[in-house]
Write a structure and sequence with these properties.
By secondary structure, the chain is mainly α. It has helices spanning 4-9, 12-40, 46-70, 79-107, 109-113, 115-138.
Length: 146
Amino acid sequence: MLPRRIYDRLPEGQQQFLKFCIVGGIGFVVDAGSLSILTREFGLGPVIGRVLSQFVFGMTTTFLLNRSLTFRDKRGDSILSQYLRFALANGVGNLINFGTHALLVANVAFFHRIPEMGIVVGTAFGLVFNFIGSKYFVFRVPSPRP
């Protein structure tokens, strides 16, 4: 992580984004690690294994870490309500990620030749959407009732 004195000078939104990115990295490790265990140790196929690793283990890990670290002061709703919104926002973010990659590979020669670079761009768009969705849709502070 950044040295503490630099981190402390960042505005709250930038601190949250940095934490969100770190949590996403942890989620990636959980996703990849659980996929490996599910396919190698439990004999699941790669598709079923990936569905479980991504949507059960990876997403649940990132939700819980974001709830307790990144947006810990924004836990006004029930955990189930927030989890369902998190799943919805991340589902849309994943579609944006995949769609960006597909559009670039299909329409731009550079990305057709090196499709992994399309993953980089798709991931960036998905990350930004997921952060904004988490900040303003999932972990929002409920408005006071009149």
